Automatic annotation (TrEMBL):
UniProt keyword list: Hydrolase, Metal-binding
Family membership noted in the UniProt record: Belongs to the FAH family.
Protein name: Fumarylacetoacetate hydrolase family protein
Coiled coil regions in record: none
UniProt-listed Pfam families: FAA_hydrolase (PF01557)
Domain Fumarylacetoacetase-like C-terminal as annotated: residue spans: 115-310
Species of the source: Pseudonocardia aurantiaca
Presence of the UniProt keyword Hydrolase in the record: yes
GO molecular function, one term: hydrolase activity
InterPro entries: FAH (IPR051121), Fumarylacetoacetase-like_C (IPR011234), Fumarylacetoacetase_C_sf (IPR036663)
Claim: Coiled coil is one of the keywords in the record: no
Length: 331
């Protein structure tokens, strides 16, 4: 099952992107219509749908980690749409700019660093031992943006690097996971573009908080996809283009530390809440972008994003470049 966010002036609306071509089906509205079709009065069905289906993915997973009610609505809506019985007023138009980040505003966003080889020409690690230890950083939820939003290039930076990554969405509150149980905590997956201003991080004594936290520096989507639709998250192609040039062409099989190991390590310290996102690192090919560039990325089974890079004039202009304008090492 896939879930998307449709931005409206009534707020963000949780929607099904795969029921009607070219339309987004509002989950709460479809549930109310389902209840009405099964005998409920419309004036009773609407408040019940609002009560039983939360408006954001984190709230939804908190109340229903298995998404049982939403799955039932999806099944009914698919059948009703096929029979021509799904009312048009249960749907929204699907203009790209109306898509928001499908994960809403998670409590915690964690980004893994150095979890892929920087250079495929490097020799394999001896005895299969990963050459880099587990490490990462917290990313500001306010950095999140939709899959077709513009990437706002901060005026104070001259070295901005986007990195396409597999994002893991947590379904159950978790602490102290082990490798054997970790995947049970996973609700599904998203494509996650982790963006950083490397020169700003270097100004901050190599701390990544500010450099990774600018507005629009976490592009997500277009959909949240439940884990049953992704049989093997460690066998997904990751591709990223800049101005039509393929920059990243990797696979999640290249991870040094797989998802269970990452979650086990992270929950030794952090409690992960429903809807939290763990972005699992990026394959080789990360490189600098500039205002005017056009970006596109895709991960197998998770859809694609397209973003224009535009200059964000807010804040002071700082010449902080410390390295050559060549491909950067992935974080």
């Amino acid at each position: 099952m896939k879930l998307a966010i449709r931005r409206t002036y009534l707020g963000d609306r949780l929607s099904f992107p795969d029921v009607i071509d070219g339309r987004l089906v509002d989950v709460q509205a479809a549930y109310a219509r389902m209840l009405e079709a099964r005998g409920s009065h419309r004036e009773d069905a609407i408040p019940r749908s609002r009560r039983e289906i939360a408006e954001t993915l984190p709230e939804l997973l908190q109340t229903d980690p298995d998404l049982a009610v939403v799955r039932a609505v999806h099944e009914w809506a698919s059948a009703a749409a096929g029979a021509g019985d799904l009312a048009e007023d249960c749907t929204w138009s699907a203009e790209p700019e109306r898509y928001g980040p499908p994960v809403g505003r998670p409590h915690t966003i964690w980004g893994m660093t150095s979890n892929y080889p920087r250079d495929r020409q490097a020799p394999p690690p001896e005895n299969g031992t990963p050459r880099r230890r587990l490490q990462g950083f917290l990313k500001a939820p306010g950095a999140l943006a939709g899959p077709y939003d513009s990437l706002r290039y901060p005026a104070m930076s001259e070295r901005v690097d986007p990195e396409l990554e597999l994002g893991v969405v947590i379904g159950r509150r978790s602490r102290g996971l082990d490798r054997e149980t970790a995947m049970a905590a996973v609700a599904g997956y998203v494509a996650f573009v982790d963006i950083g201003a490397r020169d700003v991080a270097e100004l901050d004594n190599h701390r990544m908080d500010r450099g990774k936290g600018f507005d629009t520096f976490g592009i997500v989507g277009p959909w949240f996809v439940t884990k049953d639709e992704i049989p093997d998250p460690h066998a997904l192609g990751i591709r990223f283009w800049v101005n039509g040039e393929l920059r990243q062409d990797g696979n999640t099989s290249e991870m040094f530390h797989d998802i269970p190991e990452q979650l086990s390590w992270l929950t030794e310290a952090l409690t992960l809440a429903p809807g939290d996102v763990v972005s699992t690192g990026t394959p080789p090919g990360v490189s600098r972008v500039h205002p005017g560039d056009e970006l596109r990325g895709e991960i197998d089974g998770l859809g694609f994003h397209e973003n224009a890079v535009v200059l964000d004039p807010s804040g002071p202009r700082v010449a902080a470049t410390t390295g050559p304008a060549t491909n950067g090492a992935a974080t």
